[in-house]
Amino acid sequence: MTTFSAFRNFTDNLQPTDQLMPVLFIGHGSPMNGIEDTEFSRRWAKMGEEIPRPAAVLVVSAHWYTRGTKITAMDFPRTIHDFGGFPQELFDVQYPAPGAPELARETADLLQTVHAELDHDWGLDHGAWTVIRHMYPKADIPVLQLSIDFTKGAQYHYDLARELFALRKKGVLIIGSGNMVHNLRLVAWDRLNDVNYGFDWALSINNKFKELIQSGDHKALINYSQLGKEAMLAIPTPDHYFPLMYALGLKSEKDAVSFFNDKAVAGSLTMTSVKFG
């Protein structure tokens, strides 16, 4: 394992540049994507090769839902297996990436509208490590997580993300990890392995989300409850949707927009992911 001493002062070298790191929203789907060789995990690996190597990774995961805002600030975040009913092989996975306490403090200082608590208990949940272990399999890049305050709405999270924009200038890759369409109550369990199978309503609203993202209509995406019944089916709870708000809030006017892993699975889930920049 890489020692923490190799990273403890790395923030001293995070000087602003004119180049912005891309921002990603990633549909992470089943935890099994963390260990299986799927078209989704292969694309994550390819993305890790395509974009500039980040100085650190900051993940906003659907699976760290808290009262208030927290940032992981430990030397080495633990690998959290926050799921059940999967093979032991998945529970055995460890992703020993270092943390970045100094960067956590810097990130907290950037958030002027909220007091962000430095957290030493959480770690990396499956919304983070199942994706990042494919992108950076050597676990040699510091990884932090920013929690989602469940007491706040979409506009709040969008605005909060804008306060983190300076991190893009310092080589920090920010990833929102969730799913645009995520309704586990309506999953077609008999079609779990049928990639690119989506109910009509799921495909329709997913296409609407993409159109709004492409056109830059963030207001409509923030006010998703006004997009009709299909949106409510896609977002029965906002935990997997709010990470998209962070990616949108971090977008610059000059960022190109591209989609990847743009498929539905099990009827009521979509893996559609977005790269800004």
TrEMBL record:
Domain of life: Bacteria
Domain Extradiol ring-cleavage dioxygenase class III enzyme subunit B span(s) in chain numbering: 39-257
CDD domains: 45_DOPA_Dioxygenase
Pfam families: LigB (PF02900)
Coiled coil location: none
Cofactor entry: Zn(2+)
Keywords: Dioxygenase, Metal-binding, Oxidoreductase, Zinc
Entries under InterPro entries matching the protein: Extradiol_dOase_DODA, Xdiol_dOase_suB
Gene Ontology MF term list: ferrous iron binding; oxidoreductase activity, acting on single donors with incorporation of molecular oxygen, incorporation of two atoms of oxygen; zinc ion binding
Protein family per UniProt: Belongs to the DODA-type extradiol aromatic ring-opening dioxygenase family.
PANTHER family: 4,5-DOPA DIOXYGENASE EXTRADIOL-LIKE PROTEIN (PTHR30096)
Protein name according to UniProt: 4,5-DOPA dioxygenase extradiol
Organism of origin: Chitinophaga jiangningensis
